[in-house]
Prior knowledge:
The complex is a heterodimer.
Chain A: E1 10-11, H1 18-27, E2 32-37, H2 40-54, E3 61-62, H3 67-72, H4 75-89, E4 93-98, H5 100-104, H6 109-120, E5 127-130, H7 139-154, E6 164-167, H8 173-185, E7 190-193, H9 218-222, E8 230-233, H10 243-251, E9 255-258, H11 263-278, H12 284-305, E10 309-312, H13 315-328, E11 332-336, H14 342-351, E12 360-362, H15 367-376, E13 381-384, H16 389-395, E14 399-401, H17 419-451
Parallel strand pairs in A: 2-3, 2-4, 4-5, 6-7, 6-8, 8-9, 10-11, 10-13, 11-12, 13-14
Helix pairs in contact in A: 1-2, 1-7, 7-10, 11-13, 12-17, 13-14
Chain B: E1 18-20, H1 45-53, E2 60-64, H2 67-71, E3 91-92, H3 97-102, H4 105-118, E4 123-128, H5 130-135, H6 139-150, E5 153-157, H7 166-181, E6 194-200, H8 206-217, E7 220-226, H9 231-235, E8 242-245, H10 248-262, E9 266-268, H11 274-288, H12 291-319, E10 323-328, H13 331-343, E11 347-353, H14 358-367, E12 373-376, H15 380-390, E13 394-397, H16 402-407, E14 411-414, H17 425-440
Parallel strand pairs in B: 2-3, 2-4, 4-5, 6-7, 6-8, 8-9, 10-11, 10-13, 11-12, 13-14
Antiparallel strand pairs in B: 1-12
Helix pairs in contact in B: 1-7, 4-6, 7-10, 8-12, 11-12, 12-17, 13-14
Protein name (chain A): Nitrogenase FeMo-cofactor scaffold and assembly protein NifN
Family (chain A): Belongs to the NifD/NifK/NifE/NifN family.
GO molecular function (chain A): nitrogenase activity
Amino acid sequence: MKNQxxxxxNENPCNMCMPMGGILPFKGxxxxxxxxHGSQGCSTYMRRxxxxxxxxxxxxxxxSLNEKGTIYGGEKNLKQGLDNLIKLYNPGxxxxxxxxxAETIGEDIDRIAAEYKAxxxxxxxxxxxxxxxxxxxxxxxxxxxxxxxxxxxxxxKTRLHSRVNVIVPNISPADIREIKRILQLMKVDYTLCPDxxxxxxxxxxxxxxxxxxxxxxxxDIAAMPGAPVTIQMGVTVDEGMSPxxxxxxxxxxxxxxxxxPMGVRATDAFLDTLRHLTGxxxxxxxxxxxxxxxxxMIDSHKYxxxxxxxxxxxxxxxxxxxxxxxxxxxxPVVAATGSKGAKFSEAIKKILAxxxxxxxxxxxxxxxxxxxKSRQRxxxxxxxxxxxxxxxxxxxxxxxxIGFPIHDRVGGQRLLSVGYTGTGMxxxxxxxxxxxxxxxxxxxxxxxxxxxxxx
Amino acid sequence: xxxxxxxxxxxEERSDFIRTKGRQKQQLKCDADSIAGCxxxxxxxxxxxxxxxxxxxxxxxxxxxxIGCSSYTWDIRGSLSSSADLYRFSFSTDxxxxxxxxxxxxxxxxxxxxxxxxxxxxxxxVYSTCIVGVIGDDLEAVCKAAAQRHGIEVIPVQxxxxxxxxxxxxxxxxDALLRLLRPPEGKGLAKTRSINYLGDFNLAGxxxxxxxxxxxxxxxxxxxxxxxxxxxxxxKAARASLNIVQCAGSMYYLAEKMEELYGIPHMNISFLGLxxxxxxxxxxxxxxxxxxxxSKTEELIAxxxxxxxxxxxxxRRKMEGKKAAIYVGGGFKAISLIKQFREIGIDVVMIGxxxxxxxEYDTITDLVDDGTVILDDAxxxxxxxxxxxxxxxxxxxxxxxxxxxxKLGMAFIDHNHDRKHPLSGFVGAVNFAGEVYSTLxxxxxxxx
Lengths: 455, 448
């Protein structure tokens, strides 16, 4: 296993920027809106990217900094922006995210936000500041930091209750719905944060409302310190950005970090955690789903064993997919993330113990690097987000889409990959991609190899 | 907790940017900074510059800045190439905190060195982003030194996001192009009887479609800006004897500069819709004042019109009386769309642009019916309000507007840069009508 070193130029990025990731958790909080403090383009690009993945309107405001604001400070712009945002949307919470520009010119958004609240007499409106300079990290880091800041700003010391905190990474709305279903089947009361299962995958209903219904309720977030435990799907998250760690250190809520429940082991681990908590065994319905997943794995094992996978994307997703691939013999030959992820490398090395092939683990990867390694190691299936399309186009490696963003196919928001059932669906997508590849070329390959002898 | 949302509200500062034809005398306000917090649909300076330059196929497109700017613009446009495909790569200096504190000049120089060695090219565009303008990197000096080191052209694009809106980015791109096409000292190019085609980015092969028409007429296209262009073809731009300008928003500045510097006259044309396509081809033919060209042009128009007439009529009968809303980037496209909708029997009830100019809004106002809402730099709330109030059946827009239309239960036309089918010329007019039909007359609307 090897790690990559410093470079001067990123060729075809495998990650997006920090404020982009910071928007997403706010979309999973009830009646919440975001304003990006920076120039107009940042919010527009991010809206476009998120809208294409979820096929949902993504309204995000900007303080629209111009030259004057950049030179003399953007306070006036930000305050005016907040005024207009409130007028237009009447939100229950506003996230204020910075950009490269705001951070570089030294904008003190904490002071501006506090002043604004006092000036306008808006004591009860949570304004959550998140410092997210684009050069500060990838979108994954922006996501976790925003979740942490939301919780840190709203959480209050509260009496103990029985609702478990469940903190999820940037997975699909369908995945969040599945996790909620499992929690309900296990009869666990919970506060899931951030919950964009409805807000970023909303049913078609009339009339249209600008802020979609759903999302984690602010009063539930406020009560998170009274939970018996925090279950956080964040084994790759740095402690400084870990919302669960924050709740543990500040309020003494025990933290259990688990991987995204994908694959047999990780789903078992998630359910074991719930079993320890409730004393309840897995209900029959989940037992049957587990059995079906095992059946699926056996049915497909020989096809899957042909797979040599290149996996890329958000650290948490790469970890979960790599783990699932290891269980099924789709051995990873490249595991890459655009994030820095010190914990990612450590965690993924453990998962890959026992992998018969050598695996390149790439931090802060770009797609030119991922392509080179995939070619060298003979990868034959790619698993990750849409930006991996060049692996197919240029290297002939088919891509199974998972993660964020998926902008060249529909249904990113509906992709189900977690739990026993979701894992089975994910595996079928992978296996069928391998089969399609085999069926489309084996006749010609055999003919050339054995009949003409030209291969 | 369930708080009411303000419905259909218009922020006061925005009221000058919205007009209803026939109701208000005062001219619409445009070409101004976006108002903070209004959720403008506009992009930034860098975006404008990148849109215009990215179709240059054999250039290294290097973004000097943090990763996001490069990430969000990587290969998201449908510009096609007949040869090189380096433009489909997105390079970034991926500035980190350390670089922001100590400056990014050295990293940029090393990045250019690495790229030029790995991807041999005669041309590098280095795009400036927001923080480059603030941390004070001397882009000009780094590019000049790199150009000398490698014996190629390394052109800085002054596209820091905060210096204006998308229009400022168009201008920055045009400035970069002007530097590229400047002939060496004392080596003026001999004029040829050919034209440059400005403001077509060869989405789904649109430049090729128009070039074929012009070729049949006997008119040679010298180079298109910038669809399917490359270093060599752009270098010869100054030898053309006429510039035709389609996307005027992005290119009128370049056209004016080329007239001033190289004496190349320019004329606005549009190949969107049958009416504009025919009129534009005639206008070009007339500019040559050549009887042979004019007669070939008439032949082409007659033949192509006859070929598509029945299809257009068929669509017209299916869609007559429907109402359209338009929200697009520039004024040129908006104007053409009004006429194009008219050809298929559809009235425009709301129309706006992100960066339209005053004279374009004047033309729009002349063209539309009384009662049509015209708006500049609109936001989702305004789009929702006016489309609903005016009873629009479909919206034409970009990626961000699409889900809004769908959530409102409205048909939608993708008139953006990542589309995969041509909307130019005679064939484009049929494609357009077909797309309108596919979204207006889909059975899915029966179920909502």
